[in-house]
Design a protein that fits this description.
By secondary structure, this protein is mainly β. The protein contains 1 helix and 7 strands, in the order αβββββββ.
Length: 110
Amino acid sequence: MDKFSLTALAREQLDLARRTSNGRSAKTVYGGHAHLLRQTVIALLAGQQLDEHQSPGEATVHVLNGRVRLAAGDVSWDGTAGDLLVVPDTRHTLQALADATVLLTVAKAT
């Protein structure tokens, strides 16, 4: 069994994002290509975003800290610490409205 501190991982990723030229950082906490479930801590500095991309499968974004906006077309949802956003099954973006870290959880069908 493994145990992770999401608080510590979020802090580490945000520190790394502050040292990068693109203001972003990410680390897979659990899973990966050989698993159905993948969980990744993503840090985005205010104003940075993940450009529009297709949904990776069933997915949620749990906001660990900061403030983000998940947008699909003309529809958007804002999230703050503790919020769980369901990723739409369509092209979407994720933007940091303030320095933020999120836990992206994706379940891929086999």
